[in-house]
Amino acid sequence: METNATQHDVDVPEDNLTWQRFSVPYQYPVAFMRGLFRPENPLFANVVARDDTTKRHRCLFIVDEGLTQALPDLDNTIADYFTAHAGQLELIAPIMRIPGGEMVKRDLAYIERMQDAIHAHAIDRHSYVIAIGGGAVLDAVGLVAAIAHRGVRHIRIPTTVLSQNDSGVGVKNAINFKGLKNYIGTFSPPWAVLNDFDFLNTLPQRERIAGISEAIKVALIRDRDFYHWLEENAEKLASFEPEAEEYMVRRSAELHMHQIAHGGDPFEMGSARPLDFGHWSAHKLEALTNHHMRHGEAVAIGMALDVCYSVLAGLLAKGEDERIVVLLETLGFRIWHPALESTDAQGELSILVGLREFQEHLGGELTITLLKEVGVGVEVHQIDTALMRKAMDWLRNRERG
Ligand SMILES: NC(=O)c1ccc[n+]([C@@H]2O[C@H](COP(=O)([O-])OP(=O)(O)OC[C@H]3O[C@@H](n4cnc5c(N)ncnc54)[C@H](O)[C@@H]3O)[C@@H](O)[C@H]2O)c1
Ligand SMILES: [Zn+2]
Fold first, then answer.
1. 175 alpha carbon – ligand 1 mean position (Å)
2. Which of 139, 181, 201 has most ligand 1 atoms within 8 Å of its beta carbon, as the pocket-test mutant?
3. Whose C-alpha lies nearest to ligand 1, atom 13?
4. Which long-range contacts (CB under 8 A, 24 or more apart) does 228-232 make?
5. What is d(CA 194, CA 48) in angstroms, rounded to the nearest whole number?
6. Looking at 15-19, 206-210, 293-297, 311-315, which range is the least confident one?
7. What distance in angstroms lies between residue 184's CA and the mean position of ligand 1's atoms?
8. pLDDT value for 273
9. What are all long-range contacts of 146-150, with beta carbons under 8 Å and residues at least 24 apart?
10. What string of DSSP letters covers 292-322?
């Protein structure tokens, strides 16, 4: 594997070559709870003060505007919390708001505005930048925090299903560039991730459903029991029954964390990207719909496509595709979008161009995760486009009934 290159891989006489080697252990707490900013809850203060309980820690909040519109009192709630924990915490500026969703990732001006704030408030490498919001806001703030002073302490407080069950617990950040998703970004583990389920209550239903697709994704490639649990609890999940939603978020986050910590490639040096199951077409679909389609909705279609293809390619038992599509539909996902049929100037199906773009994004060899059985992914390095078109036909015909 590319990440394990050894001395023997470099053809230089040994006396002219020194190998620099060190490793940096990463660890950060990931909490799941309710009532993060209730004054009596010490968690946030303890996490911030974890390396030094003798001083006050300077904090700058950058918050998703979609969230502050839904929770107009959030500023006061946070201010009250800081008053209650004034021995440890210092709120150095009014809460800064940035637009939620893909808008913040599409315009470098927001990055500059946040850098300005970090500079103006003299945030140093021992102060904190705290992001509260959906995956897009966490990605944008994470990038800013990673590059200011080459990295200031960054705490993520995810407020969508997707950011709690997937993106928020990971080690990546990014914004889009020239229409290419996640083109500018870094690998940068956070100081802490604090998942407060209460934030999900104000999330629009569409977003709340969309994020479930990442739980299905990780269950399909890694955990058969969890997948069965998702099937058994689909109706409860579709009606946001709190216990079911919490378990879904938490188990999905754990599986994502496990992959990052034990999958052998946390900073994605190789070509395989198992957590991107269903994503090669999803990324393209998001772009083709000008991001009107939610990431999770695109992933649901991407998974439907890849499980059909897995069956057609003889990797997955017949009928499993149908079963997975039924789960997606029970949760309210569509498995087809007309953008799948759009073509580029050369008459090529745009979605298939997405395969090339995905390869470029990964670097190296094309590596697509497909399904061997529920709970077990398999990597392939070639996609038969005629077969992929057949899979698309199947989805289109099914949707049209
Ligand atoms: N870094 C990673 O590893 C990683 C992984 C997966 C996805 N992502 C990124 O995450 C983004 C998608 O994130 P998302 O699905 O969380 O959606 P999002 O960030 O686009 O937010 C969706 C909408 O919900 C609003 N919102 C957020 N929290 C709310 C709340 N509690 N109440 C009311 N409204 C709220 C936002 O303002 C926005 O309008 C994409 O840009 C995707 O590329 C990153
Ligand atoms: Zn995803």
1. 12
2. 139
3. 135
4. 230/327, 231/327
5. 11
6. 15-19
7. 17
8. 80
9. 146/173, 146/186, 146/188, 147/115, 147/186, 148/115, 148/118, 148/119, 148/123, 149/123, 149/124, 149/125
10. -S-HHHHHHHHHHHHHHHHHHTTSS-TTHHH
For residue 319, CA distances in Å to 299, 323, 375 come to 20, 6, 15
State the number of CA atoms in the 13 A half-sphere of 250 facing the CB: 12
Q: Which atom of ligand 1 is nearest to the CA of 66?
A: 37
pLDDT tens across 97-144, in order?
A: 999 999 999 999 999 999 999 999 999 999 999 999 999 999 999 999
CA distance 66 to 168: 17
Ligand 1 geometric centre to CA of 133 (Å): 7
Which two structure tokens, joined as six digits, stand for 37? 């900013």
Distances (CA, A) of 188 to 28, 151, 161, 191, 299: 11, 8, 21, 10, 24
- The C-alpha atoms of residue 308 and residue 274 are separated, in whole angstroms, by 18
Can you list the domains of the chain with their CATH numbers? 30-202 (3.40.50.1970), 206-400 (1.20.1090.10)
CA–CA separation, 388 and 394 (whole Å): 10
Rounded-to-integer distance, Cα 317 and Cα 118, Å: 53
pTM of the predicted model as reported, rounded to 2 decimal places: 0.94
The alpha carbon of 297 and the centre of ligand 2 are apart by a number of angstroms equal to 10
- Could you read off the pLDDT of 62-83 as tens digits, one per residue? 999 999 999 999 999 999 999 9
User: Buried b / exposed e across 342-353, counting CB within 10 Å, b at 16+?
Assistant: eeeeeeebbbbe
State the closest ligand 1 atom to the C-alpha of 100, by its place in the atom list counted from 1.
37
pLDDT at 15: 77
Pocket of ligand 1 (CB under 6 A): 64, 66-67, 70, 100-102, 105, 133-137, 139, 159-160, 162-163, 166-167, 170, 172-173, 182, 199, 202-203, 207, 211, 295-296
The per-residue DSSP string of 33-78 comes to: ES-TT-TT--HHHHHHTTT-SSS-EEEEEEEEHHHHHH-TTHHHHH
- Average pLDDT over the chain reads 93
Report which protein residue has its CA nearest ligand 1's atom 20: 101
